[in-house]
Amino acid sequence: VxxxxxxxxxxxxxxxxxxxxxxxxxxxxxxAKQYAESIGADHIVQRQPKLRVVPNVFTxxxxxxxxxxWKKLGYLPIFEKENAFELLSDYDQxxxxxxxxxxxxxxxxxxxxxxEEYAFGGVAEMDMPITQEHSRKIRQYSIMQYQKVANDRxxxxxxxxxxxxxxxxxxxLNSKKIIPALRGQTPMQFLERPEFRExxxxxxxxxxxxxxxxxxxxxxxxxxxxxNLDWKWNALYGSLKPESEKNAHxxxxxxxxxxxxxxxxxxxxxxxx
Length: 273
Description:
By secondary structure, the protein is α/β, with parallel strands linked by helices. It has helices spanning 2-8, 23-39, 70-73, 132-150, 175-182, 187-191, 197-201, 211-221, 266-272, and strands at residues 11-16, 42-46, 93-97, 101-103, 120-124, 157-158, 162-163, 166-174, 226-228, 235-236, 250-252. The model has no long low-confidence stretch (mean pLDDT 91).
């Protein structure tokens, strides 16, 4: 019965690729498209901005350093991913996947990793086989981002990595469990919630935040049942112990500036993994 149920489920992989074209992103998107076809999921790539979220820099009397390109584009592209929420009623499960994540051919079906009892699945960075350097980095980052909101939420933490947080480059959603937490709001109404305002505007320590801070806070605030997925579903290239990437299903090229030729020599990059 469970096998029949899973086979009949409607599933979607949703990606956003706005702004300048990148050979790396196009290669990763192509890998996601092929993967979607292999597991019987739909695949949608949003190519034009819809929300055009802009931080309120005037109220806070500051210039926003969230991303180096937001002023050039005129909006924060990272928040375009939340457009996927509009499609929750059309699908049983949605995977929101960053355009810089490469899907290795032959990878298992990620949708089968999230049982009906869960609303959200993601990979916590502290669960990854990360280097000591990255451990120090996320400890400092997580304290800056989450200490203010973690005190009353039994937020998992340790001395090595700081507070637990999901890398929101990959978000696996069970629609029936997620929809109630959206309270009937559109993606823009969701982003405009008062509790997200400082995070979206980049006030104080949130100046380095993206939708990752907001979404980590949201899933915990709502008390959503979350599953920590295996690190192999979101392997952070360049931040893992040697040879780890070769065992991963999905490889996240999340630091483009630190990749050889900014990742645009795709053939050379693929040889490394």
